[in-house]
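User: Here's a structure from my thesis project, written as structure tokens. My advisor, Dr. K., wants to see whether a designed sequence matches the one we expressed. Can you design one independently, without my sequence as a hint?
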């Protein structure tokens, strides 16, 4: 089973930015999608927000 949620460390791996930047992005995604603090952000929501192709992000996360 593959996971569907994304964490700040994953954002760091995909973007090459810092983990702190990843936390900020996840916070912005939660605001955009009207999520509560305890709810997780999916890889699909991250890709939609960042304008990245899902398959490329999934591939990048799979190899790390």
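Assistant: Designed independently from the structure alone:
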């Amino acid at each position: 089973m593959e996971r569907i949620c994304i964490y700040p460390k994953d954002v760091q791996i995909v973007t090459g930015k810092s983990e702190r930047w990843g936390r900020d992005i996840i916070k912005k995604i939660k605001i955009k999608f009207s999520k509560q603090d305890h709810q997780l952000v999916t890889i699909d929501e991250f890709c939609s927000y960042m304008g990245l192709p899902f398959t490329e992000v999934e591939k990048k996360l799979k190899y790390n």
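When you compare it with your expressed construct, this may help: The first helix runs from residue 8 to 15.
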